[in-house]
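From the shared-data thread, chain only:
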Amino acid sequence: MRTGPGNRGRSEMVVLLLLALLAVVALAVFLYYVFVVLSGLPNPVPTPTTG
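Structure, as tokens:
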């Protein structure tokens, strides 16, 4: 495979696309674990129960 000066722009676009995809996946995993941790915490202000 020949890598000439005209092929550099496309390879840079592929690298940027992969980095953007990695950032989106990392954000999704981070938000998932934040949601899991926050849902596991007890409720700081208990809601009044009518009984």
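The chain has a mean pLDDT of 85.
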